[in-house]
Amino acid sequence: MNVLAARGVRKSYGANEVVSGIDLRVASGECFGLLGPNGAGKTTTLKLCLGLIKPNAGDIELLGEPVPRRAREARTRVGVVPQFDNLDPDFTVAENLLVYGRYFGMKSGEVKPRIPALLGFAGLAGRADSRITTLSGGMKRRLTLARALVNDPQLVVMDEPTTGLDPQARHLIWERLRRLTQQGKTLVLTTHFMEEAERLCHRLAILDNGRIIAAGSPRTLIAEHIESQVVEVHGAGYAAWMERAKAICPRVERAGDTVYCYAEDAAPVLQSLAGQSELAYLHRPASLEDVFLKLTGRDLRD
Amino acid sequence: MRLRWVAVWRRNMLVWRKLMVASVLTNLADPLIMLFGLGYGLGALLPSIEGMPYIAFFAAGSLCTATMYTASFESMFSGFSRMHGQKTWDAILYAPLVIDDIVAGEMMWAASKAWLTGSTILAVIVVFGFAASPLVLLSVPAAFLVGLVFSSIGLVMTVLARNWDFFSFYMTLVMTPMTMISGVFFPAERLPAPLLAVAQALPLYHGVELVRPLIAGRLPEQPLLHALVLLGYAAAGYSLAIYFARRRFSE
Asked: Range of A154's domain?
């Protein structure tokens, strides 16, 4: 069963088309990632799927309800973690959950018994009475995640859940998200951390300029779009070496003063580097980041 | 419409309960200082107006303006802070509420808070013996109506505002002159006819016209007219606030 299905969805602001005909399918129990550079249309796509803004064209179905027409009904079974924390600064940690549960039509007596477990899940046990302003960035993010779970949703939608967090906080969030998938919840997240997408997502779509330019599991994306080996080379004389490398490596790219050699067999490249003491190099398997950069280019987006 | 807005109202109520003492004091201090300062100070120099001492005359105006100001400040400054600064409205919209529910909840909340200000001033009026008969109790629903009018208009300003400065236009260009011509400090009938006509087209005048006779122990001469004008303003403000809020949030 599809938890989310979108077909031919378009959204423009004036003459600027932000989402240009997107098709998406997210199956129940799946963790689905929407990848893309800044400004690719990730957040707009999520807002369209949640029925917060109206598409100019296309069909969206969220948990069996047509969106935006019955988006409100669908959202009773959805939790949302927005890109920027908007916890209620007027309240304590526990009050944030209580008040948020009431927006779902839950009675105070229904929400209160759920609060300790939600805080435990978020690693915030003992902080029930803390003020929001005293929480660290990671704690706020975890509380936002707990808030998204207050209605025990089938689907959790997250916009860049770990942006701005330190590695410890990020790993904790990843661990919690995996736990949610194990509980059978469906996750949809946007990110521009390839490592995050590779670790968490069963399936991904890469979005650029409002279009999906590739989709599949992280492994198939790597297998389909890029050579399996990468050698990164830098150091004095890299430019001269690059000219020679072009003869022995099927795809050679330069970014700044680093040369990237992509090949199914890296042995010839490594041999040619053997005697070059002034060149430093790193030989590694291709990653999702290589796919992403190949498909969306190395130019800055902002 | 279902009662989904109640959750928004209760959110604001919970915040208010935490800051209740400070909130009540600040909402009451200004109008009461004005009431007693002007009422006794200026009143000592004045003969009775419309058959009552100046302070009893001014009490009706004081009740209505205090209600208006509480409703306006809550719906504009506090509302804008929730909508724009804290992004509280954005968070609520992820839940199964729509922008109409938020506007309704904010309007009812600001009106409730304003009603509390009006009612407390009414209690002071009664305790100090300015009210002539139990008819004054009918001012309680009248105060809520005045609160509703200025909450809904305040929310129109809020959902149109791009920054805080926007509110000062409405306050200095509309609220302050309206207070001057609506019979708050002196009988509006003393105004030149065109100004009186302007006052009669605005809501505050009708609030004062409802409350003043009730304090004096009489029924207003045209209660239905005044109530209908106030209801009309509240309904128009509410519809406009919803219209502009939808445009701002779900375009």
From this structure: 30-55+76-220
The structural domain count of chain B equals 1
* Mean pLDDT value of segment B115-134: 94
Are residue A187 and residue A212 in the same domain, yes or no? yes
Comparing CA positions, the residue from A126, A123, A133 lying closest to residue A168 is A123
A279 and A249 within one domain: yes
A43 part of a folded domain: yes
Question: What is the token pair recorded at A172?
Answer: 């904790």
Chain segment A46-98, per-residue pLDDT in tens: 999 999 999 999 999 999 999 999 999 999 999 999 999 999 999 999 999 99
Angle between helices A93-103 and B5-18 (to 10 degrees): 160
CB crowding A176-185: b at 16 or more within 10 Å, else e: bbeebbeeeb
Say whether B166 sits in a helix, a strand or coil: helix
What value of ipTM does the predicted structure carry? Answer: 0.90
Q: Tell me the residue range of the domain where B82 lies.
A: 5-249
Look at A105 and B14 and tell me if their CB atoms are within 8 Å.
Answer: no
Q: Is A106 an 8 Å CB contact of chain B?
A: no
User: HSE (CB half, 13 Å, CA atoms) of A206?
Assistant: 24
Q: If you average pLDDT over every residue of chain B, what do you get?
A: 94
* A278 band by pLDDT with thresholds 50, 70 and 90: confident
B1/A175: higher pLDDT: A175
Same domain, A41 and A171: yes
* Claim to verify: residue A173 and residue A235 sit in the same structural domain: no
What is the Cα gyration radius of chain B?
18
Co-location of A86 and A141 in the same domain? yes
pLDDT at A193: 87
- Whole-number pLDDT of residue B23: 86
In this structure, is residue A186 part of a structural domain?
A: yes
Q: Is residue A269 domain-resident?
A: yes
Q: Please tell me whether residues A116 and A205 are part of one structural domain.
A: yes
Q: Do A75 and B86 touch (CB under 8 A)?
A: no
Distance CA B88, CA A215 (A): 35
Residues A240 and A189 in one domain: no
| Strand (E) or helix (H) holding B68 | helix B54-73
Bond before A68 cis per omega within 30 degrees: yes
Mean pLDDT of A12-34: 95
Q: Which residues of A touch B4 (CB under 8 A)?
A: 105
Q: A105 and A39, same structural domain?
A: yes
Beta strand pairing call for A186-191 and A155-159: parallel
Give this prediction's pTM: 0.92
- CB–CB contact A75 B7 (8 Å): no
